[in-house]
Amino acid sequence: MKFNQWIFSIFVMAAVLLSGCQSPEYYQERAVNRAREYLLKKAPGLNMMQREYVKFNKPYIMSRPIIGNPHGEDDEVISPHALVHFNIAWVIPGKDEVYLVFGVSEPSMAMWFPERLIVKEFIQPDKKKDNAVKAGQKYALNTLLNLKLADMNHIRFAVPEFYVTNYVLDLNHEDRGITEQQSEALMKQTQMSMVWSSKTKPNEKIVVIGLGQTDLGGWKAFASLLSSEEEFLKHVVTDIPELEQPAVEPVEGTPKPPPKSAIEKLLEEIVEENEG
What is the reported pTM? Predict the structure, then answer.
């Protein structure tokens, strides 16, 4: 009897040890299955085809350390004892929103359980415009030194308007300290001005004049000024034109998978940034 109990104890200990030595892929797959079951339970509005898509398609997994990382949140090395929030997300056909199942666990996901379903619409960021706005804000605050505090805060936090303008800029390569080739390249770019309406002086515009591509790629500030609305409108050519996307020619041969949606591309970028 004692021998049987001893054998049983050995099997129990072995089971406990083996259960704690599973691979990271095992824990991740288990977490995904828990998220999948939770989503299907909490989102009854999905039709049959959409539910089947969730059942049989892999999700995106996004993560971010939130507490307990001794190396700092931005460090590549994450402590195995850190606390990490994971979003397990599906881009479901026919839905404009992304379905994310939120939960918190250690980095291995061994103890990850779903806590909340988040239905979120992701908007593809316009990085070229965002970079231009940041550059214009910095230039205005560094050059227009007599601005009132209200106007300074307005520049910091308000989204400006962009116009194609025709102000005269000094692009002489000797004055600019650049090569003649660089000066000629600047002259070929589109002049676009970033504009805020003053909060302290009616009818006054805060203008930062820059050069770049029509989609604001490579936009760089060259001058700033305060102008009345009437004077500014004299230099406006037109609003920024909408860019036409080039047509995609069909390619003969092996059929390619359909192009990924903007949401899928955005999620892939987020996942790559987290992994990097």
Answer: 0.52
How many Cβ atoms from other residues are within 10 Å of residue 139's Cβ? 20
Quick one: residue 109, left, alpha or beta (phi over 0 = left, psi -120 to 50 = alpha)?
left
Whether the predicted pLDDT of 246 surpasses 60: no
* 14 vs 229: which has the higher pLDDT: 229
267/273 Cα distance (integer angstroms) = 10
Q: Map residue 37 onto helix, strand or coil.
A: helix
Q: Rounded to an integer, what distance in angstroms lies between the CA atom of residue 206 and that of residue 242?
A: 24
Long-range CB contact pairs, 48-55, < 8 A, 24+: 49/93, 49/94, 50/92, 50/93, 50/94, 50/95, 53/90, 53/92, 53/93, 54/90, 54/92, 54/99
d(CA 168, CA 93): 51
Please give the structure tokens belonging to residue 111: 């103890």
